[in-house]
Description:
Elements: H1 3-16, E1 29-38, E2 56-70, E3 77-84, E4 87-94, E5 100-107, H2 135-141, H3 165-173, H4 179-183, H5 187-197, H6 202-205, H7 208-223, H8 226-230
Antiparallel strand pairs: 1-2, 1-5, 2-3, 3-4
Amino acid sequence: MNLIQQLEREQMDAILSKRGVPEFGPGDTVKVMVKVIEAAEADPKDKKKKVEKEPTVRFQAYEGVVIARSGSGLNENFTVRKISYGEGVERVFPVYSPFIAEIEVLRRGKVRRAKLYYLRGRRGKAARIFERTDARARRLNAAWKGFKKPKGEAEDLTQIKGIDIDLQNRLKQVNAYKIEQIANLSDEDIANLDETLKLKGAIEKQDWVGQAQRLLAELTASEVPAEEAKE
Protein backbone atom coordinates (compact mmCIF):
# COMPACT_ATOMS: atom_id res chain seq x y z
CA MET A 1 0.00 0.00 0.00
CA ASN A 2 1.51 3.30 -1.09
CA LEU A 3 1.25 6.60 0.78
CA ILE A 4 -1.79 7.88 -1.15
CA GLN A 5 -3.72 4.66 -0.57
CA GLN A 6 -2.82 4.77 3.11
CA LEU A 7 -4.10 8.34 3.47
CA GLU A 8 -7.31 7.44 1.63
CA ARG A 9 -7.78 4.43 3.89
CA GLU A 10 -7.38 6.61 6.99
CA GLN A 11 -9.99 9.09 5.70
CA MET A 12 -12.40 6.25 4.90
CA ASP A 13 -11.92 4.76 8.37
CA ALA A 14 -12.59 8.19 9.91
CA ILE A 15 -15.95 8.34 8.09
CA LEU A 16 -16.81 4.72 8.93
CA SER A 17 -16.13 5.42 12.61
CA LYS A 18 -18.97 7.99 12.51
CA ARG A 19 -21.49 6.17 10.31
CA GLY A 20 -21.92 2.90 8.48
CA VAL A 21 -22.19 2.31 4.74
CA PRO A 22 -24.88 -0.30 3.98
CA GLU A 23 -24.65 -2.73 1.09
CA PHE A 24 -26.61 -1.33 -1.85
CA GLY A 25 -26.43 -1.08 -5.63
CA PRO A 26 -28.26 0.08 -8.77
CA GLY A 27 -32.01 -0.46 -8.56
CA ASP A 28 -32.18 -0.05 -4.79
CA THR A 29 -34.32 2.69 -3.27
CA VAL A 30 -32.34 4.61 -0.68
CA LYS A 31 -32.85 7.55 1.66
CA VAL A 32 -29.79 9.76 2.11
CA MET A 33 -29.71 12.08 5.11
CA VAL A 34 -27.63 15.08 4.05
CA LYS A 35 -26.14 17.61 6.48
CA VAL A 36 -27.04 21.17 5.53
CA ILE A 37 -25.04 23.91 7.26
CA GLU A 38 -26.84 27.25 7.38
CA ALA A 39 -24.85 30.35 8.27
CA ALA A 40 -26.46 32.61 10.87
CA GLU A 41 -27.52 35.94 9.40
CA ALA A 42 -27.12 39.21 11.26
CA ASP A 43 -30.22 41.13 12.33
CA PRO A 44 -30.95 43.62 9.47
CA LYS A 45 -32.56 46.05 11.94
CA ASP A 46 -29.42 46.29 14.03
CA LYS A 47 -26.68 47.49 11.70
CA LYS A 48 -24.34 48.73 14.43
CA LYS A 49 -23.93 45.52 16.38
CA LYS A 50 -22.28 42.61 14.63
CA VAL A 51 -23.09 39.51 16.63
CA GLU A 52 -21.38 36.38 15.38
CA LYS A 53 -23.62 33.36 15.69
CA GLU A 54 -22.69 29.76 15.19
CA PRO A 55 -24.01 28.18 11.98
CA THR A 56 -26.92 25.79 12.41
CA VAL A 57 -26.91 22.23 11.09
CA ARG A 58 -30.04 20.53 9.84
CA PHE A 59 -30.67 17.25 8.04
CA GLN A 60 -32.35 16.96 4.66
CA ALA A 61 -33.68 13.63 3.37
CA TYR A 62 -33.17 12.76 -0.29
CA GLU A 63 -35.02 9.61 -1.35
CA GLY A 64 -34.80 7.96 -4.73
CA VAL A 65 -33.55 5.07 -6.86
CA VAL A 66 -29.84 4.39 -7.27
CA ILE A 67 -29.19 4.42 -11.03
CA ALA A 68 -25.40 4.14 -10.91
CA ARG A 69 -22.51 3.44 -8.59
CA SER A 70 -18.98 4.02 -9.81
CA GLY A 71 -15.44 4.65 -8.69
CA SER A 72 -13.53 2.95 -5.93
CA GLY A 73 -12.00 3.73 -2.58
CA LEU A 74 -12.37 7.27 -1.34
CA ASN A 75 -13.60 8.44 -4.77
CA GLU A 76 -16.54 6.02 -4.93
CA ASN A 77 -19.89 7.71 -5.61
CA PHE A 78 -23.50 6.85 -6.43
CA THR A 79 -26.26 8.62 -8.35
CA VAL A 80 -29.79 8.83 -6.94
CA ARG A 81 -32.76 9.71 -9.17
CA LYS A 82 -36.20 10.80 -8.01
CA ILE A 83 -39.29 12.41 -9.54
CA SER A 84 -40.02 15.84 -8.07
CA TYR A 85 -43.15 17.68 -9.23
CA GLY A 86 -43.22 15.61 -12.39
CA GLU A 87 -39.58 16.24 -13.30
CA GLY A 88 -36.68 13.84 -12.94
CA VAL A 89 -34.00 15.04 -10.53
CA GLU A 90 -30.62 13.38 -10.07
CA ARG A 91 -27.95 13.91 -7.48
CA VAL A 92 -24.48 12.41 -7.16
CA PHE A 93 -23.25 11.57 -3.66
CA PRO A 94 -19.71 10.54 -2.67
CA VAL A 95 -20.05 7.38 -0.56
CA TYR A 96 -17.58 8.67 2.02
CA SER A 97 -18.72 12.29 2.12
CA PRO A 98 -18.59 13.90 5.60
CA PHE A 99 -21.83 15.72 4.71
CA ILE A 100 -23.81 12.48 4.63
CA ALA A 101 -25.22 11.56 8.05
CA GLU A 102 -26.85 8.27 7.09
CA ILE A 103 -27.68 6.04 4.11
CA GLU A 104 -30.75 3.86 4.56
CA VAL A 105 -31.85 1.19 2.09
CA LEU A 106 -35.66 1.21 1.83
CA ARG A 107 -36.18 -1.30 -0.98
CA ARG A 108 -33.96 -3.61 -2.98
CA GLY A 109 -34.56 -3.70 -6.72
CA LYS A 110 -34.13 -6.55 -9.19
CA VAL A 111 -32.14 -5.27 -12.20
CA ARG A 112 -29.75 -6.71 -14.80
CA ARG A 113 -27.67 -3.63 -15.55
CA ALA A 114 -25.02 -1.76 -13.60
CA LYS A 115 -26.19 1.60 -15.02
CA LEU A 116 -29.89 2.42 -15.14
CA TYR A 117 -29.71 5.55 -17.29
CA TYR A 118 -32.59 4.22 -19.41
CA LEU A 119 -34.92 5.31 -16.57
CA ARG A 120 -34.40 8.91 -17.68
CA GLY A 121 -36.64 8.33 -20.68
CA ARG A 122 -39.38 6.44 -18.85
CA ARG A 123 -42.36 7.51 -16.76
CA GLY A 124 -44.93 5.80 -14.55
CA LYS A 125 -45.20 2.00 -14.79
CA ALA A 126 -42.49 1.83 -17.46
CA ALA A 127 -39.97 3.08 -14.89
CA ARG A 128 -41.04 0.57 -12.24
CA ILE A 129 -38.37 -1.75 -10.82
CA PHE A 130 -39.37 -5.12 -9.36
CA GLU A 131 -38.36 -5.86 -5.80
CA ARG A 132 -35.76 -8.51 -5.07
CA THR A 133 -37.01 -11.47 -3.02
CA ASP A 134 -34.05 -13.86 -3.24
CA ALA A 135 -32.15 -15.28 -0.28
CA ARG A 136 -29.48 -12.58 -0.37
CA ALA A 137 -32.06 -9.79 -0.35
CA ARG A 138 -33.87 -11.43 2.57
CA ARG A 139 -30.59 -11.69 4.46
CA LEU A 140 -29.78 -8.02 3.87
CA ASN A 141 -33.30 -6.94 4.82
CA ALA A 142 -33.13 -9.03 7.97
CA ALA A 143 -29.93 -7.30 9.09
CA TRP A 144 -30.00 -5.78 12.55
CA LYS A 145 -31.55 -2.29 12.46
CA GLY A 146 -31.21 -1.26 16.11
CA PHE A 147 -32.75 -1.56 19.57
CA LYS A 148 -36.34 -0.96 20.52
CA LYS A 149 -36.67 2.71 21.44
CA PRO A 150 -36.41 3.07 25.25
CA LYS A 151 -38.56 5.42 27.29
CA GLY A 152 -37.25 8.68 28.67
CA GLU A 153 -34.75 11.27 27.57
CA ALA A 154 -31.31 10.53 26.16
CA GLU A 155 -28.49 10.32 28.71
CA ASP A 156 -24.89 11.49 28.46
CA LEU A 157 -23.02 8.44 27.19
CA THR A 158 -19.77 10.40 26.92
CA GLN A 159 -19.28 9.55 30.61
CA ILE A 160 -18.13 6.18 29.28
CA LYS A 161 -14.51 6.36 28.13
CA GLY A 162 -14.28 5.68 24.41
CA ILE A 163 -17.61 7.32 23.51
CA ASP A 164 -17.32 10.83 22.10
CA ILE A 165 -20.09 13.14 20.82
CA ASP A 166 -20.02 11.72 17.28
CA LEU A 167 -20.20 8.13 18.50
CA GLN A 168 -22.97 9.07 20.94
CA ASN A 169 -25.00 10.44 18.01
CA ARG A 170 -24.41 7.25 16.02
CA LEU A 171 -25.52 5.13 18.98
CA LYS A 172 -28.64 7.25 19.24
CA GLN A 173 -29.47 6.39 15.62
CA VAL A 174 -29.81 2.73 16.66
CA ASN A 175 -31.80 3.74 19.78
CA ALA A 176 -28.94 3.19 22.22
CA TYR A 177 -28.91 6.27 24.42
CA LYS A 178 -29.31 4.97 27.98
CA ILE A 179 -26.47 4.01 30.32
CA GLU A 180 -28.60 1.08 31.52
CA GLN A 181 -28.75 -0.23 27.93
CA ILE A 182 -24.96 -0.27 27.67
CA ALA A 183 -24.71 -1.95 31.09
CA ASN A 184 -27.04 -4.75 29.99
CA LEU A 185 -25.59 -5.45 26.54
CA SER A 186 -25.56 -9.15 25.70
CA ASP A 187 -22.93 -10.84 23.54
CA GLU A 188 -25.34 -10.70 20.60
CA ASP A 189 -26.02 -6.99 21.17
CA ILE A 190 -22.28 -6.29 21.28
CA ALA A 191 -21.75 -8.19 18.03
CA ASN A 192 -24.61 -6.31 16.32
CA LEU A 193 -23.38 -2.91 17.49
CA ASP A 194 -19.80 -3.69 16.54
CA GLU A 195 -20.77 -4.80 13.03
CA THR A 196 -23.32 -2.02 12.39
CA LEU A 197 -21.22 0.89 13.65
CA LYS A 198 -17.83 -0.55 12.57
CA LEU A 199 -16.42 -0.28 16.10
CA LYS A 200 -13.66 -2.87 15.57
CA GLY A 201 -14.15 -4.47 18.99
CA ALA A 202 -14.09 -1.17 20.92
CA ILE A 203 -16.96 -2.24 23.22
CA GLU A 204 -15.00 -5.11 24.71
CA LYS A 205 -11.56 -3.49 24.50
CA GLN A 206 -12.71 -0.38 26.38
CA ASP A 207 -15.07 -2.32 28.66
CA TRP A 208 -18.19 -0.23 27.97
CA VAL A 209 -20.38 -2.67 29.89
CA GLY A 210 -18.21 -2.57 33.02
CA GLN A 211 -17.96 1.22 32.91
CA ALA A 212 -21.74 1.56 32.49
CA GLN A 213 -22.40 -0.82 35.38
CA ARG A 214 -20.10 1.20 37.66
CA LEU A 215 -21.84 4.43 36.62
CA LEU A 216 -25.22 2.90 37.42
CA ALA A 217 -23.96 1.78 40.82
CA GLU A 218 -22.69 5.31 41.58
CA LEU A 219 -26.00 6.86 40.48
CA THR A 220 -27.97 4.40 42.63
CA ALA A 221 -25.78 5.12 45.67
CA SER A 222 -26.17 8.88 45.24
CA GLU A 223 -29.97 8.54 45.12
CA VAL A 224 -30.13 6.75 48.52
CA PRO A 225 -31.24 9.23 51.26
CA ALA A 226 -28.68 10.00 53.98
CA GLU A 227 -30.88 8.53 56.78
CA GLU A 228 -31.26 5.22 54.94
CA ALA A 229 -27.53 5.12 54.29
CA LYS A 230 -26.83 5.42 58.07
CA GLU A 231 -29.20 2.57 58.87
